[in-house]
Design a protein that fits this description.
Blueprint: H1 2-32, H2 35-56, H3 63-69, H4 74-98, H5 100-106, H6 112-123, H7 128-134, H8 138-163, H9 166-190, H10 200-235, H11 237-246, H12 249-271, H13 277-302, H14 304-312, H15 320-327, H16 329-332, H17 337-342, H18 348-372, H19 375-400, H20 404-407, H21 410-422, H22 425-430, H23 437-458, H24 462-475
Helix pairs in contact: 1-8, 1-12, 2-4, 2-6, 2-9, 2-10, 2-11, 3-7, 3-12, 4-6, 6-9, 7-8, 8-9, 10-11, 10-18, 10-19, 12-13, 13-15, 13-21, 13-23, 15-19, 18-19, 21-23
């Protein structure tokens, strides 16, 4: 367990550090570009995000399942992953270029060529992080991803500062990704990673596993961005800039969750053959998710106005209500039962869940946007996500023969929630202290988080005690048996 915890901590820190670096990009761009230009940049990134999911189609991330399951076929799976991704990306982006006129009807400016170039170089040979995760080498992920992101953000900010032109910025990002592909290709060719020993049966197995996940990921990505597309299409780039700012918690939550999930999933696959092993491990991770995300969600809502003003300037204060709604996304992501169900090798259910969530999302956007304005799509997204999770829970209970009571450690989760409520007077008391608002909010948040963890531990949440023991063992240079 200590080894798993170490990998989880390293990957989570890696993803959070990378997000902190990634966050520098909008923080600086909102100060360099006009609001409308920043909205155009976000418009490009929305389409780029959807296209990268479509081109990758979860083939790269499926390595975290196949490498632990077939370690002797490591190079074969890496080779076929590279080939399949290349084929998909060529087909998708060729279609994009041929459909340029159709896309320009919805876009506010012509960014099709840099979009195709950026997406192609971004997705190809992008399996390297999943490869190292499956090989239990999270530190390599930390170093590689950090360097990659620093270069990307630095390039975007420098080009924005000197050009003030959105198209120049996105073309520079495409060039950076092209250089990355060249370097990664040279490295793995020298390592003799690529082989010709490809078995059709393994290729079919990988496609059957990745296909539903990729399709569901695409639908999920569409669901995450449909609100932005709606706002941009109906209200224009300035409103899109506000909405993108308010919804910036969404990638933060996904980044945090991906660090935890990517570290845990291979271990869940390995524990699947042990009776009840995967469920017990998932329950412990679920409790720690709640201990992390419950108090964070409350703090983000409490200090929403200060956070938006400090990070994005007072020009983006209209984003505050949207930011508060998206803070609830942290609570939803505490419960990822689809991860547990995927340990059985099943993935088709994810497509149905994601499709249902998209339908709910679009339906609610049409209704809520008329009465609630920009906040309507945000509320629609949260409700759709909750509906998807209820569907995944139902499938998990049936597939694993569990009851609702046996699915999670509900007693510990309730104790964490009680701890969050009992500690609420702390930020209220800090409001009475004079001084700089930002420093006061930071101090209040740290004290509040420590108080919640202490109260939960005292109320009997054993997994928090295990984390404390782990941290003590690391400080004293010894492992937990």
């Amino acid at each position: 367990m200590s080894g798993l915890m170490s990998r989880t901590v390293v990957l989570t820190v890696s993803r959070l550090s990378n997000f902190a670096i990634h966050l520098l990009s909008p923080l600086l761009l909102v100060r360099i570009l006009e609001v409308s230009a920043y909205g155009q940049y976000q418009e490009f990134m929305i389409y780029a995000t959807i296209l990268t999911v479509l081109c990758a189609f979860a083939v790269d991330s499926s390595l975290t399942y196949f490498l632990p399951r077939y370690p002797q076929r490591e190079r074969a799976f890496v080779t076929q992953t590279s080939g399949v991704t290349l084929l998909i990306s060529v087909c998708v982006l060729s279609t994009l270029l041929l459909s340029k006129d159709l896309l320009l009807r919805a876009a506010s400016y012509d960014f099709v060529a840099p979009l195709a170039a950026y997406t192609f170089f971004f997705v190809n040979l992008n399996w390297i992080e999943y490869f190292w995760i499956a090989k239990r080498q999270p530190r390599k992920v930390l170093y590689y991803s950090a360097v990659r992101l620093v270069i990307r953000v630095g390039t975007a900010v420098l080009v924005a500062y000197y050009s003030r032109d959105v198209l120049t910025i996105v073309w520079s990002l495409a060039v950076v990704e092209a250089l990355r592909v060249a370097l990664v290709l040279v490295y793995f060719v020298r390592q003799k990673t690529f082989v010709r020993d490809i078995k059709p049966s393994e290729l079919v197995e990988q496609l059957r596993f990745a296909g539903p996940i990729g399709a569901s990921a695409l639908v999920q990505q569409a669901s995450r961005n449909i609100g932005k597309l709606f706002i941009g299409g109906t209200l224009g780039p300035i409103a899109l800039a506000y909405y993108a700012t308010g919804s910036y918690l969404q990638p933060l939550v996904r980044v945090t969750r991906s660090g935890i999930e990517d570290a845990v999933y291979p271990e869940l696959v390995r524990a699947h053959n042990e009776p009840g092993g995967a469920v017990r491990l998932w329950q412990r991770v679920n409790v720690l998710n709640c201990a992390l995300f419950f108090p964070a969600s409350l703090l983000l809502i409490y200090y929403a106005e200060q956070i938006i003003t400090a990070l994005f300037t007072s020009a983006y204060l209209p984003a505050v209500p949207i930011f508060c709604v998206y803070a609830l996304y942290l609570v939803r992501r505490c419960f990822n039962t689809d991860v547990l169900l995927r340990t059985t090798g099943r993935s088709g259910f994810m497509l149905w869940g994601a499709t249902g969530a998209l339908v709910v999302n679009i339906s609610l956007i049409a209704v809520l946007s008329r009465t609630l304005g920009m906040i309507g799509p945000a509320i629609a997204f949260i409700i759709a996500e909750l509906a998807a999770e209820l569907y995944y829970i139902n499938r998990t209970l049936r597939a694993l023969g569990l009851s609702v009571a046996a699915l999670a450690d509900w007693a510990s989760i309730l104790r964490i929630l009680v701890s969050c409520i009992l500690a609420l007077p702390i930020p209220m008391a800090f409001d009475l202290v004079s001084g700089n608002e930002i420093f006061r909010a930071i101090g209040s948040s740290l004290v509040y988080l420590m108080a919640v963890l202490w109260l939960a531990h005292r109320l009997g949440v054993k997994d928090i005690g295990r984390v404390v023991d782990y941290l003590r063992s690391r400080l004293h240079g010894r492992a937990i048996p």
